[in-house]
Amino acid sequence: MAETGHGALSASRERGAHTANGLLMLLVGFVAICVGLFGMLALAGGAPAGLGFVLVGGLGFFLIAPGFYMLQPNQAAAILLFGSYRGTDRAEGLRWVLPWMGRTKLAVRANNIISDKLKVNDLRGNPIEIAAQLVWRVTDTAQALFDVDDYRSFVRVQIESGLRAIGSRYAYDDVAHGEVTLRGNHDVVNTELRAELIARLAVAGITVDECALTHLAYAPEIAGAMLRRQQAEAVVSARTKLVEGAVGMVQLALEQLSERGVVELDDERRAMMVSNLMVVLCGDRDAQPIVNTGTLYQ
Q1: Which residues does the UniProt record annotate as the domain Band (predicted)?
Q2: Which of 19, 26, 81, 298 is the one with CA 20 to 30 A from 281?
Q3: 111-218 maps to which CATH number?
């Protein structure tokens, strides 16, 4: 990593490493062994030239043998030369590199993690508990290894920071105003959380394939009060719908009575009928009829 003029470190970038097929080098090592054995047999037969074959075969074997390493599918190895990054090998199978070059393996598979429950204040200052699950993977091995100290710990810390940022950005719930809320707009919140985490983890060469909230609730100290508030809001909303429907039904009844000439209603009778119909339609219990044997005004 090169240092900039302001003292900040520039981001590392992954590049391909110059490595060899391990099976081919295994064949070369076998040839080196055969050369060494041939030299030993020559020395045993009294041929001084056999010493050269022994030296060549032995040197070749001891140079080739330490350079082997194996990569599984979705595994990579960063190649280092005396601490200097020389590239990343992503080819699976038996591989070989010069023995004085170091190899640091890391997985580039998808990882699944569920965060701890965090207590966060939402947009309105209410304490809530929130947790998330996400699927992440390493996309740039050089950044993951050299730009952060421990990329797995870095992921856990950034999940907490991202959750706190999203949790404080929205209210837990808002029935009255129809705003975007944590409880009522899961798709929007999950999309913003993923974008937030991708931006935070980019410095470590990590991307987020999927994330979603797994736990969302009011903190225990206010859960009871908020439950009563939600119940009250639900009752008010239901009553509002009920009154709207009752007013429409009363209006329809009066219009049809007037159009068909069933009864002539003055203002006082009309008011009385409206009152009775609203009581019947909006009451919690069935209305008990009272038979009036006199006139309407008695």
Answers
A1: 66-234
A2: 298
A3: 3.30.479.30
